[in-house]
């Protein structure tokens, strides 16, 4: 597979916060395979756009393609240590009166998380609205409020202590991440990439 090039389409946030930090490991294991990475959000015709692999988030609903599920989405509540101390947040119940950060496309996520945490049904929770998870993460790190984000997006922030998890509740959503490949295509480089990415989760 020396000199092979793999064209990969990925969700931009997934690529920047999960895939790219791990790519040096793939290149070390497979030095003969080059990766071209392009941002895509919605399903598309893999053959027409000449992508070998795509990362899809959602349901198993990409037409005319081979899908391999590699992880579910689990959302956790996080905040900066200073925010937690200032607002006296000692667990999930402490967030009921604390400023919250919301993702505009998931208006009911905090309510679902509160229910999963054993707090029952809660009324509409006010707070700042953002349209990207990266903004929610930045806002939480800046102390604007607590954010509810997929755990995989904040591995580095949790590791470094920039953010801390509030409670241990993880809300599993109805969507998952899939590796998508064209049907009927023999591609050893893509095989190697899929095997590698499955080993990362």
TrEMBL record:
<feature type="domain" description="LysR substrate-binding">
    <location>
        <begin position="5"/>
        <end position="200"/>
    </location>
</feature>
<dbReference type="GO" id="GO:0003700">
    <property type="term" value="F:DNA-binding transcription factor activity"/>
</dbReference>
<protein>
    <submittedName>
        <fullName>LysR family transcriptional regulator</fullName>
    </submittedName>
</protein>
<dbReference type="InterPro" id="IPR058163">
    <property type="entry name" value="LysR-type_TF_proteobact-type"/>
</dbReference>
<comment type="similarity">
    <text>Belongs to the LysR transcriptional regulatory family.</text>
</comment>
<dbReference type="InterPro" id="IPR005119">
    <property type="entry name" value="LysR_subst-bd"/>
</dbReference>
<dbReference type="Pfam" id="PF03466">
    <property type="entry name" value="LysR_substrate"/>
</dbReference>
<dbReference type="GO" id="GO:0006351">
    <property type="term" value="P:DNA-templated transcription"/>
</dbReference>
<dbReference type="GO" id="GO:0043565">
    <property type="term" value="F:sequence-specific DNA binding"/>
</dbReference>
